[in-house]
Amino acid sequence: MSGVGAIAAAVTAAATAAVKPKVFTRVGIVVSAGMQPKMVKVRVPMPVWNSKLRKYFHHTKDHLAHDENSACLAGDVVRIQPFQRHSKHKKHVVYEVISPFGTGERKAIETPEEREARLKAKRDVKLEKREVRRKIEEEKMLAKKRGKEVQAEESAAPATAEA
To answer: How far apart are the C-alpha atoms of 81 and 46, rounded to whole Å?
Structure first.
């Protein structure tokens, strides 16, 4: 029976793993932090294959990543992952600090749950403001419509009285 249970568990694990979306993370070194609020520049090494020489050459690419609490310092080894676009060039978010550089107290990195809660709260505030704005516009339209009806009635009433 234990063999059947192990197979079922393996199949369940494979099924749940197949459903999860694949998120690509990159590991790099923070080269610039603190120049702009909530943003760090991460240099990610990426080997490039030269087919003529049949050899890999080391190249790097810089990514701008969002760091909500400004917890990273230059020299930290961090893991970044793509996330919703924060600005024209900032498309990643700091997922975790793998190896901090130096010693001293640090702020905590924002967890994915905290990030989702913050963005949901921000979205709720936006939707609430939109709803208030729509109600005000509807009231203005109704008042404008009523004003036209009143003006039409006033202009029509003296014309019938004079005739």
So the answer is: 15
Note the pLDDT of residue 83: 87
Written as one string, the DSSP assignment of 60-91 is: EEEEEEE-TT----TT-EEEEEE-S--SSSEE
Close Cβ partners of 68 (under 8 Å, ≥ 6 residues apart): 38, 110, 115, 118
**Pairing verdict, β 90-99 and 55-66:** parallel
The count of other CB atoms within 10 Å of the CB of residue 79 is 16
pLDDT on residue 2: 56
To the question of pTM greater than 0.70 for the whole model, the response is no
Tell me the domain boundaries of the chain: 21-109, 111-163
Q: What gap in Å lies between CA 92 and CA 130, rounded to an integer?
A: 28
Q: Please tell me the class of the 21-109 domain.
A: mainly beta
